[in-house]
């Protein structure tokens, strides 16, 4: 896996997130782009026009807009071009359904696996979630690689006893209608395997009853035919951070047993429970994890994709070597997306953790002896 090029054609927003994790500073990128060109006429006046051209840039900066799933890549032009001078800066907006080429000096195993994941149709759009509480709701899509907000609904509902009861009922009905409209607008039921509706109390149940009654009255075949895909679960609030507990719910886990998002959540749950019950078999932080790997002790490695986007090449290669080594020793590697709640949680633990095949109390003991030596 040395130097080489790869031509990619993104056909959905999630592919842009994969590309963000593939393109690194120092790579070269060839893509179609729009450039504003100034032209002087014989009379001396100048006109400007926008032309489409193909440019090859040396990548210096990459930004990803999670909401719009857009990727902007900035760098200097490194190939002759009739519209853009050599060395001139240009920003390329990578677009859906328009191919581009990435040139790398080193294609490592983690990057190759990322490309394979992006090309695997089974790894895509698994789950939708509606997290709600009275007057607030978030409609999210949870794919194998990311959690994307599709809609936020905020509606002012009068408190009980503060207004006439009919006013309150009308407000609740309008709020439910807005949530239902968002579900119909943003969810593709041909792809989504399950739709989780989560809330504290009975909000989820009352909303679901309202939506299904409405579907019967209006003969909404889409909702009626997909009724079995809805799963109602408890959450502590209607805010997006409640997604973590929602994904851990056994009813949801059962529905999503074959999806990557559920796999990540389950692996992190196993790590946390092991950390509490048998801490000599659960370690996090690169130094501890590398020591465990030196003894071929790692059963499952959990690592955040944030670490592979490091601008420090040596640091990035350190994590690639760790991943390769764990696989060679027969261990399982799970690369977590930092756009999932489970990935965010792993990032808080330095982005790398391991479940061991056997206890290694000496790792912790070595640290304590080092501390006492330094005192």
TrEMBL record:
Component of the Pelota-HBS1L complex, a complex that recognizes stalled ribosomes and triggers the No-Go Decay (NGD) pathway. In the Pelota-HBS1L complex, pelo recognizes ribosomes stalled at the 3' end of an mRNA and engages stalled ribosomes by destabilizing mRNA in the mRNA channel. One of its GO terms (cellular component) is cytoplasm. SUPFAM superfamilies: Dom34/Pelota N-terminal domain-like (SSF159065), L30e-like (SSF55315), Translational machinery components (SSF53137). Its cofactor is a divalent metal cation. Keywords: Cytoplasm, Metal-binding. Residues 1-120 form the eRF1/Pelota-like N-terminal domain. It is found in: Cytoplasm. One of its GO terms (biological process) is ribosome disassembly. The keyword Electron transport does not apply. GO terms for molecular function: metal ion binding. It comes from Scylla paramamosain (Mud crab). The keyword Transcription does not apply. NCBIfam families: pelota. Belongs to the eukaryotic release factor 1 family. Pelota subfamily. This is Protein pelota homolog.
């Amino acid at each position: 896996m040395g130097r080489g090029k790869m031509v990619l054609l993104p056909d959905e927003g999630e592919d842009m997130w994969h590309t963000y994790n593939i393109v690194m500073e120092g790579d070269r990128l060839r893509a179609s782009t729009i450039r504003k060109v100034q032209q002087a006429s014989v009379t001396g006046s100048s006109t400007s026009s926008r032309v489409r051209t193909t440019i090859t840039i040396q990548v210096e900066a990459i930004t990803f807009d999670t909401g719009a799933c857009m990727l902007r890549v900035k760098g200097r032009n490194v190939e002759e071009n009739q519209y853009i001078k050599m060395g001139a800066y240009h920003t390329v907006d990578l677009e859906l359904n328009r191919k581009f080429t990435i040139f790398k000096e080193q294609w490592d195993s983690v990057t190759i696996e990322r490309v394979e994941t992006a090309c695997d149709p089974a790894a895509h759009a698994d789950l939708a979630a509606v997290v709600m509480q009275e007057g607030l709701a978030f409609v999210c899509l949870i794919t194998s690689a990311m959690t994307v907000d599709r809609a936020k609904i905020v509606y002012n509902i009068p408190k009980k006893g503060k207004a006439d009861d009919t006013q309150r009922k009308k407000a609740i009905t309008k709020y439910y209608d807005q949530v239902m409209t968002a579900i119909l607008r943003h969810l593709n039921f041909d792809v989504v395997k399950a739709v989780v509706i989560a809330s504290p109390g009975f909000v989820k149940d009352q909303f679901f009853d309202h939506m299904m009654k409405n579907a019967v009255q209006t003969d909404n075949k889409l909702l009626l035919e997909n009724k079995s895909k809805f799963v109602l679960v408890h959450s502590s609030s209607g805010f997006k951070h409640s997604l973590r507990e929602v994904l851990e719910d056994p009813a949801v886990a059962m529905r999503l047993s074959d999806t990557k998002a559920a796999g990540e959540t389950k692996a992190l749950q196993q790590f946390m429970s092991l950390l509490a019950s048998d801490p000599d078999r659960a370690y996090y932080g690169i130094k501890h994890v590398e020591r465990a790997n030196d003894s071929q002790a790692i059963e499952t490695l959990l690592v955040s994709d944030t670490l592979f986007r490091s601008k420090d090449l040596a640091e990035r290669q350190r994590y690639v070597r760790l991943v390769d080594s764990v696989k060679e020793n027969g261990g399982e590697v799970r690369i977590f997306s930092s756009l999932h709640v489970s990935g965010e949680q792993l990032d808080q633990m330095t982005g790398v953790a391991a479940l061991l095949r056997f206890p290694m109390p000496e790792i912790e003991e070595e640290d304590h002896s080092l501390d006492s030596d330094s005192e």
